[in-house]
Amino acid sequence: MSVAYRLGASVLVRELLSWADNWLGHRALGGVHRRSTRDAFLRLVEAMDADYNVYVSQDVTKFFASIHGGHLLLLLEHLAAPVCLRDFVRAMLHDHRLIEAMSFVDDRAFWSSSETHLQVAKVQSDLFDRTFNFRCDVAKCHVASRKNELETLGVAFDLRGRSLPRLSRYTFDKANARLLCIRAVSDFLPRQAAVVRALVLPLMSWAGAMASIEPNQDASIRFAARRWPDLTLVAVAVIRELGWWCVERGAIVRRLDERGCVRSFHLGFGSKSILYNEWLIDWRRRAILNNALRVRRLRCSLRRREDQVNLAQGAALPGVPPNSLCVYSGHRKIFSELRAVRSLIVPKNECSPRFPAPPCVFDDDEVLLNIARDIERQLRESGFAYVGTHGSTVVEVAAWSVVVADGMEHASGVIGEDQPPYRAELEGIRRSLTALRSCNVSGRVVVIADCAAAISATRGNGRARKLVQEILDHLAVVRERRIVISFHWVPSHGKLAPASWVPPPCGEMQARALNAAADHAARNHAALKARRSAREACAIARREAETWEVAVIKALAEIAEVYDEV
Prior knowledge:
Elements: H1 2-15, H2 17-20, H3 37-47, E1 54-61, H4 63-66, H5 69-78, H6 83-95, E2 107-112, H7 115-131, E3 135-136, E4 142-144, E5 149-152, E6 155-158, E7 166-167, H8 172-185, H9 189-205, H10 221-224, H11 228-231, H12 233-242, E8 245-247, E9 252-256, E10 262-266, H13 273-291, H14 293-300, H15 329-333, H16 364-382, E11 384-394, E12 397-404, E13 409-413, H17 421-437, E14 443-449, H18 452-457, H19 465-480, E15 483-489, H20 508-530, H21 534-565
């Protein structure tokens, strides 16, 4: 029931976002979708730049228990809440004394450099509390100036700017004690991981929600214009510790890889998993392995005692090379298996190589010019142009394609670190729109794709917000040129269509043929770019290392079983 309640509450809050945006400003945060504690922290960080502010922090005691049902219903009616929501709240009030179906913010803070303004704000705050029969918790209310530390929503802000914001209730001793005691609870790794997620991570990440600054007429223009490096101070410190750097006011994150190549990640265009699951995790894996005491000892000496002369030593038992990266995919793959294989051949590199940069992309402008010519020719001849787009990935090397009916197949690679199939599908649509912007003929263009998520991006949905916004900008320009464009989904690879599917205007046969041609062009181009590339070599080396690792673990398991029987 707890999970069902949370899921239902999440859906309810998300569906009420459009109504809440009508009356919520940028100062009212919490309890509403896309208005998290992180947004409150950003406003405080921005205000800390002013040396003359005095901060007043208040906390309402027993807030949820103090909510009066009649007041709540009158307030919802005044705010023109949907009738179904008011009926739902009324039903909840009839059956329950405490209201848990809606969330309200019980912490408030205000600041100003004017004593008069602070007094007026305090009077209005007290009037609000008396109206709804609230009472502030005096122990949690305080006034802070530039000489003090402000604590709100579980985060402490150093108003002097000498230290980064920190979690006020987090203690390293408590977290470390829980980590050390986990082995006493269970030796099973998945169960230990579950205990860590339940007892340790909440100490440091309970307030780590994602930020989203909502556009509002009365929002501070100076605050809205600031970029994340100016507001998320902890993230900037972490990037500096990792040896990375930001350019273009935080729009691009860069690092120098082991080959001396500068790797760039464009925020908003690629998936954040590249930063989290590749760059950051690989950095931590390498650092932890290099600092392991056993690894350092193996590098110093592998000589055995006299009674161990028959054991492998020296060159026959090499240590882990410095600055190595081990992903332990073999350990994860056969964690629960206890079988063995004989006659093992050691691969050339037991450690996993770093994931290299993708191949370079050339002649992209020429491909776009050819696409525009094909579309323009079709529009001149018949007033219609049927276009198929697709994206494909081979060993983490992506390519997109655009095929025009009665025209040529056009394909090119994807620029950037993030190269999953979804990004390739988006690039196919984005590049077709880019080509359409240069067409000087009006008419109707029908775009066909087999990726529903990519088509949804043309309506403003999906990941990679900046890339989606660029697609919307291209669409607006294309429609200004009197080009009527529509997007249609088609089942991929000859799959049966659902009964509710409506074929594109060109018909099912031509739509499937265009999609198949685009699929073929994208897959072939991705395979061509991946062939003999650094990413293909990395994938082969990692597969060999995983195979060898799996075989070694199985052999050791069999040896252990033999000794157990003896």
